[in-house]
UniProtKB/TrEMBL annotation:
Protein's UniProt name: DNA-binding transcriptional LysR family regulator
Organism: Methylobacterium goesingense
Residues of the HTH lysR-type domain: 6-63
Family: Belongs to the LysR transcriptional regulatory family.
Keyword match Transferase: no
The organism's taxonomic lineage, starting at the top: Bacteria, Pseudomonadati, Pseudomonadota, Alphaproteobacteria, Hyphomicrobiales
């Protein structure tokens, strides 16, 4: 039996193009001509025997084969980069200041930073868990080097003044209620549990409720995600978030079961301060990119 060995350069071109939303941008990032990158992608599709992308308006969309390939491709590239770093040396040194939302601080982040610290003992990683506005302000001011931040809409935010994100996912929002469910009477005011404004989740929820002519009130507000989850579990109201890392007392509600409107997706972008980029940041960013899709979309 002849074993097919996937081309890692082609995989890197594929993953970079998906991360940037454009293979032309990927060619520029990877210092290749667009025609050379197209040849790599055709070779990869030939090895797999299936197309990986399709046109979707002005952008790109993954086929089923492309979706299946993306997560493993990220892991292969991360393992390749980690292997080279270990063999080539010298060990990295320096500091990376990482910021991220509360949603991920207690879920997959410990499993990511542990291996990174063992592989790169000379790199000092400082982590700050903040609100979205504080994360972006810290990155813009140079107080943070690398952040995971929420973005509204299905395209990268035009309001962000920096370069394109290193990676981006579109994740479903969900109404979050108690494990045993939540029933709203059609004529009742909906109690909400939310972060204080400004909050992209809060804005999206209120917009959806107003569009459906559903009356609402903020029954509980907290700067802590743990506080929100406790309030929802206590029956004070429902929250709006991504269905990731929920405590066992909660679950994502189907809109129809609670007479609630459908919700849009929200973007999660990995962004770096351009002036702070260096080998240590790039290695941590590579591990974050490899972790994002399989961990968040599982």
């Amino acid at each position: 039996m002849v074993v097919t060995n996937l081309d890692l350069d082609a995989l890197r071109s594929f993953v970079t193009g998906i991360d940037l939303g454009s293979f032309a941008k990927a060619a520029e990032r990877l210092d290749r001509s667009p025609s050379a990158l197209s040849l790599q992608l055709r070779k990869l599709e030939g090895q797999l025997g299936q197309p990986l992308t399709r046109k979707s308006g002005r952008g790109l969309a993954l086929t089923e084969a492309g979706e299946a390939l993306l997560g493993p491709a990220r892991r292969l590239l991360a393992l390749n980069d980690e292997t080279l770093a270990i063999v080539r040396g010298p060990a990295l040194a320096g500091r990376v200041r990482l910021g991220l939302p509360q949603d991920f601080a207690e879920t997959w982040l410990p499993g990511l930073l542990g291996p990174f610290a063992r592989q790169n003992p000379g790199v000092q990683v400082e982590v700050r868990v903040e609100t979205n506005a504080a994360l972006l302000a810290g990155l813009h001011a140079g107080r943070l080097d690398l952040v995971l931040a929420w973005e509204s809409g299905a395209v990268p935010s035009e309001a962000w003044p920096g370069p394109a994100p290193l990676a981006r996912l579109d994740l479903p929002m969900a109404w979050i209620g108690p494990r045993d469910g939540f029933v709203r009477a059609l004529d009742a005011t909906l109690p909400l549990v939310a972060f204080a404004a400004p909050c992209l989740f809060r804005q999206a929820g209120l917009r959806a409720l107003d569009g459906a002519a559903i009356p609402w009130r903020v029954a509980f507000a907290s700067p802590s995600l743990t506080g929100l989850w406790a309030a929802v579990a206590a029956g004070l109201g429902i929250a709006l978030r991504v269905p990731h890392g929920l405590p066992p007392t909660l679950r994502a509600l189907e809109p129809a079961e609670a007479n609630l409107p459908a919700l849009p997706q929200i973007g999660l972008a990995l962004r770096a301060h351009d002036a702070q980029r260096g080998p240590a940041l790039e290695r941590l960013a590579g591990m974050l990119r490899a972790a994002m899709a399989p961990k968040l979309l599982a």
